[in-house]
Amino acid sequence: MKRLLSLFLFSLIFMGCKNDNSLVFEPSNFGNEPCANCASVSISIPKAIGNKKLDETINTALREEIIFILKYDDAVDASSIDMAIKSFQNEFAKLKEKFPEESTQWEASINGEVTFENERMLTIRLDYYLFTGGAHGYGSIRFLNFDKTKATELNNEELFKDILDFEGYAEAKFREQEGISSTESINSTGFMFEEDMFYLPENMGFTNEGLQLFYEQYEVASYADGPIILTFPFEEIQKFLTLQTF
After folding, report:
1. Last residue of a domain, one of 99, 130, 154
2. Is there a single domain that holds both residue 176 and residue 217?
3. What's the domain count of the chain?
4. Structural domain contains residue 105
5. CB 236 within 8 A of CB 230
6. 3-class secondary structure, 212
7. Rounded to 5, what percent of the chain is helix, strand, coil?
8. What is the pTM of this model?
């Protein structure tokens, strides 16, 4: 009887460890109270609230990405979101001190959400907007992709069995979407791919609709053209993907 009980308890523990890739998030907000002479910062992101390695991996990746977005001065050493916010505000304060007549207020807004999750994978998208003077601000997104079973963040190459194989498929779909024939130069309609060669964007991630490729403004087209977005349904691209998505 004791042996059976021990086996039962061991099985429960084993199953709990095996399935320890479940995630729970809570909203996490950062920013400052509105004021006339300070930069406006508003950040809302999901925070993984467990003690697992996966939670730490996700929260660390989010923190580092937000610091990268907010750091106006590369010489500043910011190790937390609060420090990055302070750095952003300090740079605006320096500008106001140097040019007191400057009335334009700096602004930073970052919002994060889970756009895809299954037993193996997780994707979080950060939508952000920065305004630091000039004719217009700059808005974009960042995708963060994670392998839940290994508790690691994935780079773009790790998403695919063979990234060059997928790149060829993506180029054909890009040409189809943008009305560029296979015999024409990829830049024949005004795109600005370097060396006139198609390449994947740095920014890609999963949504419930499939894999999204996001070319930022200026990445392959003019600012006026806005971002270029391609979405590939899972059933069309599963053969290219390293991890099962459905």
Report:
1. 154
2. yes
3. 2
4. yes
5. no
6. strand
7. 35, 30, 35
8. 0.87
